[in-house]
Write a structure and sequence with these properties.
This protein is an all-alpha fold. The chain has one domain. It contains three helices and no strands. Helix 2 packs antiparallel against helix 3. The radius of gyration is 11 Å and the shape is elongated. The termini are far apart. About 20% of the residues are buried.
Length: about 60
């Protein structure tokens, strides 16, 4: 899976972010432990979660 940056996450809709989060989770679970692919998926999930959290608390 391609790394989803914080900037890219900010440009996506909320629905797209939920879909990307699911893809990142699947990529994380299926990647070899400790691999670059697994680290990229984990970083993507963190970036997506930060953006979703930011949207939840913005009036």
């Amino acid at each position: 899976m391609k790394l989803v940056s914080r900037f890219e996450a900010a440009t996506r809709s909320t629905a797209e972010l939920y879909g990307l989060r699911k893809k990142a989770f699947i990529a994380f679970a299926s990647a070899a432990r400790g691999s670059q692919e697994q680290r990229d998926a984990l970083t993507s999930m963190r970036n997506i979660e930060r953006e979703l959290a930011k949207r939840r608390f913005t009036p």
